[in-house]
Amino acid sequence: xxxxxxxxxxxxxxxxxxxxxxxxxxxxxxxxxxxxxxxxxxxxxxxxxxxxxxxxxxxxxxxxxxxxxxxxxxxxxxxxxxxxxxxxxxxxxxxxxxxxxxxxxxxxxxxxxxxxxxxxxxxxxxxxxxxxxxxxxxxxxxxxxxxxxxxxxxxxxxxxxxxxxxxxxxxxxxxxxxxxxxxxxxxxxxxxxxxxxxxxxxxxxxxxxxxxxxxxxxxxxxxxxxxxxxxxxxxxxxxxxxxxxxxxxxxxxxxxxxxxxxxxxxxxxxxxxxxxxxxxxxxxxxxxxxxxxxxxxxxxxxxxxxxxxxxxxxxxxxxxxxxxxxxxxxxxxxxxxxxxxxxxxxxxxxxxxxxxxxxxxxxxxxxxx
Length: 369
Ligand code: MG
Prior knowledge:
By secondary structure, the chain is an alpha/beta fold.
């Protein structure tokens, strides 16, 4: 069989480099035909040479229209969207409109633009296979039953580095402490989002948009070992879980070759050394971002776009040492006061994103940052 042709957009980040690792190990099955990266020009050039990608198809610092064009190239079968943040939206739309399989690692595009993304998916006939470990788990568990047999889905959360701490204890934590994630090695923004549980909140919205399951049937459970990535409870009481040791190459491999599985194991469990798996409810009083995300998801329309946009500003400010970790939730909360408008087209989303960012910036100014 001819190899599956892959465009890796956001190729120099954590997911991008792991995607290229999977491709390199399975060159008989996959071939890279386009690359895009932000600022890491040297690594991009090295990747381009390693994979024999044409110069004009390895783009650094691409404009959004250029990214969308790469995602829609005729000879691309699978688009890996590993672009960071809201800039990933045009890639998602471009790939789905062109009827591609979208291996989606960029959360923000589906969260901010959910209604539009689903319209593009329906119109273009594209397919989304999630790369996020939790959604990949749900995608796998959902194969065990029919849609109408699903009672609820359970998204697991590691709880981040601050699990068990109180709000007062979290006021003075540093950027370094927040960046020290116990189980996953990821980019800075998503690591901070994990520490606030905003990442989990965004994943709840993502699950809603991906699988069409309403918020009352999406549950978050803290599971510090990060071995169970997601579960689906069916109407007869059976719960199906997906377990593996943390290794993103498993969900990446599945997204590249779906519905087939890779014939190389990543994260397989050694049951002789795995001692215990524990579960507890999230502390929503301390980790307020989770509740804010549910509220934005339920409000619908542009509210998730506001949540995501304001969070990017707040996390950025925290990473620059301008605000306390606890201020992230305050800033997002204030931005959500804008309210939810209709999300009928991309302009609505862009407007909501812009107002969210400006509202978050004024909140920052008032905090003296
Ligand atoms: Mg995740």
